[in-house]
């Protein structure tokens, strides 16, 4: 009789599969972003805007949903991405690093510093200007790109540092979810929010009792998405809630199945729909546009290093955390720089921050793309200059 492997072994296997998929997904994401940029700046740029501006209407009972194709990608497909994020958070809380408070303390504090300092630096540049609402843009770290760069560097990066970066990025995702839900939602409809709450309670009770066929849970998930969409809270939050409500055993299985879908289909499609910004000579001429791009650049490139590095130093000095084995100061600064690769979630927040200001949104996207490239180059250079990680001992677990 074949028995399933012990939970620690399953967790390690899931983590290795996650890192492999993220690294490969980072390549797909990069290709999609380049295609979008080339397309938007080619003689066929009109077709790019025409495609993503196409309106699609859906009627569900008495509810009619009408959005252009880009918003269907951002509001509906990205809910699946955030569902997988919710599953990742649930896994880390149950069987991952986040279940050990002392182990999670260092990357958690690093993530908080890496969110707060970029936001402060952005506001230092944009306070009182038209782009002040974009303070949440440089807070994000793109797991796929950051892990992809680390994977390309191979043995130059200690395995403990990969885990540090992954945990940091997951805590960063939690912060981004809170920021989106609290600060980038508007016109809250109390009735729709109450319906969403009732659906959440129903799902929680059914999953607690392990009752109801999969089709019922799927219908309830769709009902939750519609209710949150109608409430004014960003609809992608429905995905996170559903991920966190999923039982731990099911979460691992669902994550293994859906993670490749989001990494190779959803996120590249999101990049294709959102990264196609026209690079024109007067892109930064509109009021506040230059300040938005500068604030994002300073926030992602400088703020992440100061925030992640400073918070880690403080945690180590106060005894709240300890540097992972084999990780040097240069490694830490390098991974702090890589955390400045914002991209996916930064582009997502840019669309929420400037819904009625396309010039500011375009400037933000250019700032995100430029800053992410600089962060990747600087982080890679610092890690390449560091000592190579020692080879693991025979029989050591692959991390």
Name some characteristics of this structure.
399 residues, mainly alpha, Na+/H+ antiporter like fold, disordered C terminus
Secondary-structure blueprint:
Layout: H1 7-40, H2 45-52, E1 55-60, E2 63-68, H3 69-94, H4 101-126, H5 143-153, H6 159-183, H7 190-209, H8 214-231, H9 237-245, H10 248-274, H11 289-318, H12 329-338, H13 344-353, H14 358-385
Antiparallel strand pairs: 1-2
Helix pairs in contact: 1-5, 1-10, 3-6, 3-9, 3-10, 4-6, 4-11, 5-6, 5-14, 7-8, 8-9, 11-12, 11-14, 12-14, 13-14
Description:
It is a single chain. With 399 residues, the chain is mainly alpha-helical. The protein has helices at 7-40, 45-52, 69-94, 101-126, 143-153, 159-183, 190-209, 214-231, 237-245, 248-274, 289-318, 329-338, 344-353, 358-385; strands at 55-60, 63-68. The chain has a two-stranded antiparallel sheet with strand order 1-2. Strand 1 (55-60) and strand 2 (63-68) form a beta hairpin. Helix 4 crosses helix 6 (159-183). The radius of gyration is 21 Å and the shape is globular. Residues 391-399 have low confidence and may be disordered.
Rg result: 21 Å
Categorize the overall geometry: globular
CATH level 3 topology: Na+/H+ antiporter like fold
Question: What composes the largest sheet?
Answer: 2 strands, antiparallel
SS field, number of helical segments: 14
> Approximately what portion of the residues adopt beta-strand conformation?
under 5%
The CATH homologous superfamily corresponds to Na+/H+ antiporter like domain
**CATH C-level name:** Mainly Alpha
Number of strands: 2
Fraction of residues in helix = over 70%
Sequence stretches where pLDDT stays below 50 over 5 or more residues: 391-399
């Amino acid at each position: 009789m074949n028995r399933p492997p012990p939970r620690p072994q399953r967790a390690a296997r899931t983590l290795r599969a996650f890192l492999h998929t993220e690294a490969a997904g980072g390549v797909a994401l990069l290709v999609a972003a380049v295609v979008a940029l080339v397309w938007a700046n080619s003689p066929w740029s009109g077709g790019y805007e025409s495609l993503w501006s196409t309106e699609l209407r859906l009627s569900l009972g008495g509810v009619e949903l009408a959005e252009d194709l880009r918003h269907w990608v951002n509001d509906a497909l990205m809910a699946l991405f955030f569902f997988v994020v919710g599953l990742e958070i649930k896994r880390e809380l149950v069987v991952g690093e986040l279940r050990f408070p002392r182990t999670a303390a260092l990357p958690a504090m690093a993530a908080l510093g890496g969110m707060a300092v970029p936001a402060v630096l952005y506001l230092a540049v944009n306070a009182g200007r038209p782009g002040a609402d974009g303070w949440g843009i440089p807070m994000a770290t793109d797991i796929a790109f950051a892990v992809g760069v680390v994977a390309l560097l191979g043995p130059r990066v200690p395995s403990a540092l990969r885990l540090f970066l992954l945990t940091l990025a997951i805590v960063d995702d939690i912060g981004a979810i809170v920021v989106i839900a609290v600060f980038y939602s508007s016109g809250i409809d109390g009735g729709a929010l109450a319906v969403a709450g009732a659906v959440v309670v129903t799902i929680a009770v059914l999953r607690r009792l392990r009752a109801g066929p999969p089709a019922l849970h799927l219908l309830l998930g769709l009902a939750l998405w519609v209710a949150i969409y109608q409430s004014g809270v960003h609809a992608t939050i429905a995905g996170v809630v559903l991920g966190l409500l999923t039982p731990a055993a099911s979460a691992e299985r669902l994550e293994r199945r859906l993670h490749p879908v989001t990494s190779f289909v959803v996120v590249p499609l999101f990049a294709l729909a959102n990264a196609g910004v026209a690079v024109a000579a007067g892109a930064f001429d509109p009021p506040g546009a230059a300040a938005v791009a500068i604030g994002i650049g300073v926030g992602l490139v400088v703020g992440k290093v100061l925030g992640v590095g400073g918070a880690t130093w403080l945690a180590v000095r106060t005894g709240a955390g300890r540097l992972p084995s084999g990780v040097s100061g240069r490694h830490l600064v390098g991974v702090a720089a890589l955390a400045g690769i914002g991209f996916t979630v930064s582009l997502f927040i840019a669309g929420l921050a400037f819904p009625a200001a396309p010039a500011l949104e375009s400037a933000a996207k250019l700032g995100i793309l430029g800053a992410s490239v600089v962060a990747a180059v600087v982080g890679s250079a610092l890690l390449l200059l560091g000592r190579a990680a020692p080879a693991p001992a025979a029989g050591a677990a692959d991390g």
